[in-house]
């Protein structure tokens, strides 16, 4: 077992595991994932390779854990759709989506990292695949929860199928904004009104939701 030395903890009393993850985050921001070697992690974190292997197994294990931690940090910053249950369906969706986009504007690194990992060569690693799938499944569940009161309040099969499709489209829009945010400096919040208008117009056309 690798013991944490005094140097393995910072003045803020971080565990060696968090010190390594912080180093990985900084290295990926500077060099990208492919530029993050174990030796780089050792140099940036001040910890030996044995500590990295003990906590994470390998470099891909570091990446999977970083994704998991970043996801937890992000979702701790804004509530899920159920926090707005006191609002009418469209207003509920608007409140949730607005809060989510404001949070993503504060943490643009999160979706950039997720998108890069999801399409990169490391996506086939089992730990990475399972982690990315779990994160995306959780996001999909939030979209379904946000959209169901608008389009499938009675639980009809066809309506639930529509919600599933709209949830996939919503995630795709946000994924695309991760790229636009990086290259075109387009904020997530700047596109909230346009997407809300699409949802509102479809709901009005179908007569599905109370405004």
Defining traits:
211 residues; mainly alpha; 9 helices; elongated; disordered N terminus
Secondary structure layout:
Blueprint: H1 16-31, H2 38-45, H3 49-56, H4 59-75, H5 89-106, H6 108-119, H7 126-151, H8 157-183, H9 192-206
Helix pairs in contact: 1-2, 1-4, 3-4, 4-7, 5-6, 5-7, 5-9, 6-8, 7-8
What is the tally of beta strands? Answer: 0
Strand and helix order: HHHHHHHHH
| Gross geometry | elongated
Distance between the termini: 59 Å
Mean pLDDT: 87
Proportion in helices:
55-70%
List the total number of helices: 9
Strand residues, percent: under 5%
Q: Can you tell me the residue ranges where pLDDT is under 50 for at least 5 consecutive residues?
A: 1-11
Structural class, please?
A: mainly alpha
From the alpha-carbon coordinates, what is the Rg to the nearest angstrom?
Answer: 20 Å
Largest sheet: none
Descriptive report:
The chain has 211 residues and is mainly alpha-helical. Helix content is 70%, strand content 0%. The protein has helices spanning 16-31, 38-45, 49-56, 59-75, 89-106, 108-119, 126-151, 157-183, 192-206. The longest helix has 27 residues, at 157-183. The model is unreliable at 1-11 (pLDDT under 50).
């Amino acid at each position: 077992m690798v013991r944490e030395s005094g140097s393995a903890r910072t003045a803020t009393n971080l565990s060696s595991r968090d010190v390594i993850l912080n180093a990985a985050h900084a290295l990926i921001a500077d060099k990208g994932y492919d530029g993050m070697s174990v030796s780089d992690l050792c140099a940036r974190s001040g910890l030996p390779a044995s500590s990295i292997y003990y906590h994470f197994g390998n470099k891909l294990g570091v990446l999977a854990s970083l994704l998991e931690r970043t996801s937890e940090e992000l979702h701790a910053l804004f509530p899920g759709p159920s926090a707005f249950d006191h609002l009418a369906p469209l207003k509920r969706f608007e409140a949730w989506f607005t809060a989510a986009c404001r949070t993503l504007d504060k943490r643009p690194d999160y979706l950039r990292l997720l998108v890069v990992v999801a399409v990169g060569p490391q996506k086939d690693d089992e730990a990475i695949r399972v982690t990315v799938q779990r994160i995306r499944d959780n996001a999909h569940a939030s979209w379904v929860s946000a959209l169901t009161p608008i389009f499938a309040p009675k639980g009809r099969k066809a309506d639930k199928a529509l919600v599933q499709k709209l949830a996939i489209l919503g995630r795709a829009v946000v994924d695309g904004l991760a790229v636009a945010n990086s290259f075109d400096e387009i904020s997530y919040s700047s596109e909230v009104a346009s997407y809300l208008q699409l949802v509102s117009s479809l709901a009005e056309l179908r007569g599905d939701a109370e405004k």
